[in-house]
């Protein structure tokens, strides 16, 4: 009986391991295919035709692709910058406690994360097509797209910064006040430096979201415009008589670029780790020192 | 008290329906080491935070060095607080932490450096200036917090149970350190703790608090020898409580009947015949003696030997049990009949009520 | 400090109001309008658009498809993702492993779909593999193909929150359960599973909600045979025969479905720390 149980246990463990391996293979199959085919000499992206660097050279000389790349970068950087600023301010402001309209703003801020992107895209399409036109102005695609990207990125940045804000030790801000700092100085010299990793994460997230966004961009430029970001450019490709090979090269390049970004982010994290608990040493108490946290806020401790 | 450095007058604070601080008034002199002692939830930390400026009182005033400070924000008050969890800025070095308050005062660089060096030396942490808080032990962090609060030389230093996280030996060491520092710097210390031994050993004066009220203020000796209420007698050290009825009184002495025994007690509190009172006597003030010597006799129910002393539980009657503490050991065993005696001043009144029991 | 914090929310809030809330409001308004000749809007109130949606052809069709797809995707992702998340959480190399899970997501979504083209075509690898096994299947242009594409795209979104929750699990609880005599299965079912509920809820939301509004994967991998509400919406706004009011009604419906799905677990979304 015990032997059977052991065999059963072994079997389950084996099955698990198998499942894990298969899932990883599943995850990487398309990636491998992409990278592989990016080195294929062929007129079509999906057909193998001998090893070659042709797709990459074609990529570098494809004006449309390069323009799309440029657009994506511009949109990405601008929208990341704006949304990081606005999202961080939102997180800091919502932190101050309940006041006039706070609850409503909070709900509003979380909605973009919840609502499917297609809805937001449609909304922006209607907004810009109808409203702006009626107001007598024609807005170019660039501001339109940026407006949309910032709109959904704000929420993500806010969530990231807020999470970190929650973990922040309130007594640090109190200590700064106690030592003579004005509220503005407290923010400048204590709160924001401590939030820096979260703000940076938020910015990276916003940038990545913007680069990758399809729905909002597609709909808000009414799908047929000449202005294309990378995802739009890629989507337009499938209308033609076959996908061009430089697509695979593009994908591989983007993958590499993301890897580099992540490496940079990790390096930043390593340089500025979040403050861990203090080390115990000889003769030290084992009781956790981090007694405070939310307790110190609002003067609520009753010790 | 020549100069009053900190005064709190009729300060109250309610959170919701709970009154956390109930009309507290205190006057603390310059250079005093004053403690607020009480159990968890008694309002001592809230009182401290009101003085520091993080909590606005509902009623009452706070005066710092004679100036009204009740509505001043914390950054404009000349008090500094050492937080219970130290609240060291994790993104700044030790030196930068200590320099923070001086930088807020916009002192010149050279002067800041000098003062920081002085402060670090004061707490014996010179040389660790370039470290970050997470690289220090708990005891070292505590000293950095102290240095940071002291370097600006505030009128009053507030300490919120700063030694709570340290183990016994280190805590005792730090108590000496704090006392020494305070004497040297002559800064007024307001110290909050729930550890009565600690409060008794380091304070010049202390206030015992419970349920938001100050029950007694005095020197450690006064508080220990003459607790004013039953709570104080119970919270500070240990007490035996005896309930009895006044059968006779003359001047400030009264004869109280407890069960089948009578004893006399001295009291400043005016007493009337038939009044019910609570008396208290500390275990270490009771002596065991041979049965014949005292009208109070009983049987030893239990004893615990702990090296320095032996504690006996002696049952005098079905209603009365006394805990007696004697140094060393007397060779008395469980079940033996013994007598107990005490000097008259050791027995005192802690409570008088009208209710019949 | 209070005063400043009251003010600084406004830039962000105003932006959201202008470019998010108002557009949503416009969709809402338009959904009650009528279609004029060009497919655009004739401003006369009607409930016709919503009534059309409730018609069987739409209810069973796009709406139903979307719900079914979303549900299936969520379930499959959960089944595939849980063992993975669990294994990674217990592994000493967890950081590397979880990074490897996330890495494919760094390529553009569209490109990955195209890659599935390669794999799912009749001449593609997978079909070839299936033929080896004696099965004939045209994966591209079928439900299976779309499902594969969706599961592929959203699997990391299920794994990450699961991993985050499992990683924080107090293993002492599991040891305690073993100590009290529980078998492996009991420990899993009665200790681990309940404790991983927050992660499962978060993951389910992160998969279910976006898939509801998906149109890329169903359109590209479905070859027209898998109409979802997303495909419908795109058609009605940017297709050859536009019908904005109807599309607006469909969009509002999707939004409502998402909101209902989330309202029961709103607090979980708020505290999803995996984003940090």
Summarize the structure.
The complex is a heterotrimer of chains A (303), B (357) and C (276). Chain A is an all-alpha fold and 303 residues long.
Defining traits:
heterotrimer; A: 303 residues; mainly alpha; MetI-like fold; 70% helix; globular; disordered C terminus; B: 357 residues; alpha+beta; six-stranded mixed sheet; five-stranded antiparallel sheet; 8 helices
Describe this structure in words.
The complex is a heterotrimer of chains A (303), B (357) and C (276). With 303 residues, chain A is mostly helical. Chain A has helices spanning 2-37, 54-60, 63-95, 102-114, 117-134, 141-167, 170-178, 183-212, 215-220, 230-237, 246-271. Chain A has a domain at 56-244 and 279-294: Orthogonal Bundle (MetI-like fold). Chain A is built from eleven helices and no strands. In chain A, 44% of the residues are buried. Residues 276-303 of chain A have low confidence and may be disordered. With 357 residues, chain B is an alpha+beta fold. Helices cover 24% and strands 36% of the residues of chain B. Chain B contains eight helices and 20 strands. In chain B, strands 6-7-8-3-9-10 form a six-stranded mixed β-sheet, sandwiched between helices. In chain B, strands 13-12-11-14-20 form a five-stranded antiparallel β-sheet. Chain B has a five-stranded antiparallel β-sheet with strand order 15-19-16-17-18, with no helix packed on it. Chain C has 276 residues and is an all-alpha fold. Chain C has a single domain (57-271), classed as MetI-like fold (Orthogonal Bundle), CATH 1.10.3720.10. Chain C has helices at 2-30, 48-54, 56-90, 94-102, 109-120, 125-132, 143-167, 171-179, 184-195, 197-212, 216-222, 229-238, 244-263, 266-270; strands spanning 34-35, 41-42. In chain C, strands 1-2 form a two-stranded antiparallel sheet. In chain C, strand 1 (34-35) and strand 2 (41-42) form a beta hairpin. The longest helix of chain C is centred in the first third of the chain and has 35 residues, at 56-90. The radius of gyration of chain C is 22 Å and the shape is globular. At the A-C interface, helix 1, helix 3, helix 4, helix 5 and helix 6 of A face helix 1, helix 3, helix 4, helix 5 and helix 7 of C.
């Amino acid at each position: 009986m015990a032997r059977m149980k052991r065999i059963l246990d072994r079997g389950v463990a084996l099955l698990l391991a198998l499942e894990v391996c298969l899932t990883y293979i599943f995850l990487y199959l398309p990636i491998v295919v992409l990278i592989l085919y990016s080195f294929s000499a062929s007129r079509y992206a999906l057909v193998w035709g001998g090893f070659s660097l042709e797709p990459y050279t074609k990529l570098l000389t494809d004006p449309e692709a390069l323009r799309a790349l440029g657009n994506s970068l511009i949109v990405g950087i601008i929208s990341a910058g704006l949304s990081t600023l606005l999202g961080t301010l939102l997180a800091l402001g919502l932190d101050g406690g309940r006041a006039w309209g706070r609850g409503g703003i909070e709900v509003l801020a979380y909605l973009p994360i919840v609502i499917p992107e297609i809805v937001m895209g449609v909304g922006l399409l209607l907004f810009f097509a109808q409203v702006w036109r009626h107001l007598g102005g024609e807005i170019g695609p660039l501001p339109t797209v940026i407006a949309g990207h910032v709109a959904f990125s704000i929420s993500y940045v806010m969530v990231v910064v807020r999470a970190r804000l929650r973990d922040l030790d309130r007594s640090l801000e109190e200590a700064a006040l106690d030592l003579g700092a004005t509220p503005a100085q407290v923010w400048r010299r204590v709160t924001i430096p401590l939030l820096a990793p979260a703000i940076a994460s938020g910015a990276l997230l916003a940038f990545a979201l913007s680069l990758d966004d399809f729905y909002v961009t597609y709909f808000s430029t009414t799908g047929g415009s000449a202005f294309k970001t990378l995802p739009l450019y890629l989507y337009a490709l499938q209308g033609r008589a076959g996908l061009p090979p430089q697509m695979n090269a593009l994908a591989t390049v983007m993958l590499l670029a993301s890897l580099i970004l992540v490496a940079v982010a990790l390096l930043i994290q390593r340089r500025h780790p979040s403050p861990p608990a203090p080390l115990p040493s000889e003769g030290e108490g084992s009781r956790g020192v981090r007694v405070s946290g939310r307790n110190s806020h609002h003067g609520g401790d009753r010790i | 008290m020549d100069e009053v450095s900190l005064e709190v007058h009729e300060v109250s604070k309610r959170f919701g329906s709970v009154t956390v601080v109930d009309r507290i008034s205190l006057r603390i002199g310059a250079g005093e080491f004053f403690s607020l002692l009480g159990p968890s939830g008694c309002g001592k930390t809230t009182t401290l935070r009101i003085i520091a400026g993080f909590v606005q009182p509902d009623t009452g005033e706070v005066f710092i060095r004679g100036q009204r400070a009740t509505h001043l924000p914390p950054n404009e008050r000349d008090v500094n607080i050492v937080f219970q969890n130290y609240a060291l800025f994790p993104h700044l070095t030790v030196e930068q932490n200590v320099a923070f308050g001086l930088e807020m005062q916009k002192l010149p660089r050279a002067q800041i450096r000098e003062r920081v060096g002085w402060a670090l030396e004061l707490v014996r942490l010179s040389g660790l200036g370039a470290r970050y808080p997470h690289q220090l032990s708990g005891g070292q962090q505590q000293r950095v917090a102290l240095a940071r609060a002291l370097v600006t030389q505030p009128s009053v230093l507030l300490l919120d149970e700063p030694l709570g996280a340290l183990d016994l030996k280190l805590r005792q060491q730090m108590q000496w350190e704090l006392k020494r520092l305070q004497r040297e710097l002559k800064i007024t210390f307001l110290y909050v703790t729930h550890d009565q031994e600690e409060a008794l050993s380091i304070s010049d004066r202390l206030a015992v608090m419970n349920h938001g009220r100050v029950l007694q203020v005095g020197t450690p000796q006064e508080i220990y020898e003459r607790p004013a209420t039953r709570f104080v007698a119970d919270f500070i050290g240990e007490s035996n409580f005896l309930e009895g009825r006044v059968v006779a009184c003359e001047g400030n002495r009264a004869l109280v009947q407890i069960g089948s025994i009578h004893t006399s007690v001295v009291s400043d509190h005016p007493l009337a015949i038939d009044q019910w009172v609570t008396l208290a006597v500390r275990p270490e003030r009771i002596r065991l003696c041979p049965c014949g010597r005292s009208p109070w006799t009983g049987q030893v129910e239990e004893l615990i030997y702990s090296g320095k002393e032996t504690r006996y539980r002696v049952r005098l009657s079905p209603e009365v049990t006394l805990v007696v503490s004697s140094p060393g050991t007397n060779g008395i065993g469980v079940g033996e009949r013994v007598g107990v005696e005490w000097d008259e001043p050791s027995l005192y009144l802690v409570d008088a009520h009208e209710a019949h029991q | 400090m209070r005063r400043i914090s009251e003010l600084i929310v406004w830039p962000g809030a105003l932006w959201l109001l202008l470019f998010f809330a108002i557009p949503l409001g416009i969709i809402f308004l338009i959904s009650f309008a009528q279609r004029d000749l060009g497919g655009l809007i004739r401003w006369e109130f009607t409930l016709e658009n919503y009534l059309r949606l409730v018609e069987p052809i739409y209810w069973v069709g796009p709406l139903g498809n979307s719900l079914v797809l979303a549900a299936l995707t969520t379930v499959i992702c959960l089944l595939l993702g849980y063992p993975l998340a669990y294994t990674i959480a217990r592994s000493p190399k967890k950081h590397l492993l979880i990074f490897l899970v996330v890495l494919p997501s760094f390529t553009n979504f569209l490109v990955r779909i195209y890659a599935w083209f390669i794999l799912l075509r009749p001449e593609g690898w997978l079909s070839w593999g299936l033929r080896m096994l004696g099965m004939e299947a045209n994966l591209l242009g079928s439900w299976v193909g779309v499902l594969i594409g969706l599961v592929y795209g959203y699997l990391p979104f299920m794994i990450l929150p699961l991993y985050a929750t499992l990683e924080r699990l107090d293993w002492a609880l599991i040891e305690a359960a073993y100590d009290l005599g529980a078998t492996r299965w009991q420990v899993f079912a009665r200790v681990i599973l309940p404790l991983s509920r927050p992660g499962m809820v978060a993951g389910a939301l992160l998969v279910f909600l976006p898939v509801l509004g998906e149109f890329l994967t169903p359109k590209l991998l479905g070859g027209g045979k898998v109409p979802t509400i997303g495909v419908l919406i795109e058609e009605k706004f940017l297709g050859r025969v536009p019908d904005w009011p109807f599309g607006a009604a469909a969009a509002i419906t999707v939004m409502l479905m998402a909101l209902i799905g989330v309202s029961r677990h709103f607090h979980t979304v708020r505290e999803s720390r995996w984003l940090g």
